[in-house]
Specification:
Bound molecules: 2-oxoadipic acid, nickel (II) ion
Structural class: alpha+beta
Strand content: 15-25%
Helix content: 40-55%
CATH class: Alpha Beta
Largest sheet: 5 strands, mixed
Distance between the termini: 35 Å
CATH architecture: Roll
Strand order of the largest sheet: 3-4-5-2-8
CATH superfamily: Uncharacterised protein PF07063, DUF1338
Length: 448
Amino acid sequence: MTVQTLSQLRTRFAAALSTMYGREVPAYTTLVEVATEINSGLGGNQRVTAERHGAIRVGTPEELRQVGQVFRGFGMHPVGFYDLRDTGNVPVPVVSTAFRPIDENELERNPFRVFTSMLTVDDERFFSAELRGRLEAFLAKRTLFSPELLTLAARSAEGNGLTGADADRFVELATAAFELSPEPTDRAWYSELAQINAVAADIGGVTRTHINHLTPRVLDIDELYRRLGARGLQMIDKIQGPPRWNGPDVLLRQTSFRALDETRLFVEPDGTVAAGTTRVRFGEVEQRGIALTPAGRQRYDTLMAATDAAAATGLSWQEAGRSVWEASDFPTDELGLHQAGLGYFTYSASETGTVAATPIVYEDFLPRSAAGIFQSNLTDDGSMDGARAGAYYDIDWLAGTLGCEVHAPDDLYAAQSRRSLRACAEQLGLDPSQLTATTTILETTDVR
Ligand code: OOG
Ligand code: NI
């Protein structure tokens, strides 16, 4: 029997989630339609059109470990550590990573990634010891991932894929694990958590997890923002990340439409079951640009801080961003980025001995934008007692919890760049150090 490879399984998984999410949140379908319209107008390739990232949230280290096992069965590995408790203006009680393919060929086949957050239940700034006890007891009782799903995932990871009925079953069970549960929610418990933090209620107030959003990639996010607004979707007030400006697209720009009312069943304090609504799931969209080196990232952070200052004078975020970026000495083309060592590139040699550098697409997330996306979809800021000590989490804690290496985004981009440089030099019979100086940039950042 033929094996379905990890990338084939991943493609099926992303497509199945997309179908399910479109059924659950019809506005998502509108978003995908508009994104597809824009991309095909701009000559978007197959990868861009199929590209999605998902977001999910879990409650315990054990759930995080299990979800990591499920994703490994689709060839997705943890990359990066994001602490959203003190990244944005409003604290979000989660720490996060992204599960994604790490090999460039796998990314090319299907780059599906899932931003995965864990509630920091033991952070006393958010949860009192008494509440923490009840929250932990609630979470310990639930099962998000069945033994059958976890076994199939492990077999897929070990064997680099699954055959026939096993492959079908794996995709089916994994997709169902992220479906919005029809099970009634305990109103009193959900409300108690929601008073502390809406994200805490979404994660710890219910007996299952669900996909929070599924994000298509678009080649012109400003145009998408306008078109969705024109179709009557209520958009958040800005596009997160760098502005549209007279220079290359870097890193990641994201925006979303606001979370919509969704009907859910609740068990009321008197024991009756009645329909109610929650408002937590939204539609996000993103535009990706070139991955920046640490030096480039530092310049980016400085420009973002200057944008904050400019926006505080009354300019819109976009106007502030554009004026700051265009007045700065940030390179206005890829060649400039390359010469200044601010962006990551791969290299290829032509028949005639010239070398072309192609920008590497940023495959990861931005902590500040992530916090902004969380916040912009919360109805209130929640509460936090800043006088208490926060629980400590870092990338090593994450690796220990997941039982595997957590890759640093920079290492992956740098290694990819080095590999291609070496191969190119070898082909031309040169030393790699001789190459970069003579490189011509042939392609642009819209890696379509
Ligand atoms: C995740 C929010 C972050 C992104 O694209 O930065 C995110 C969530 O709402 O669970 O998805
Ligand atoms: Ni997202």
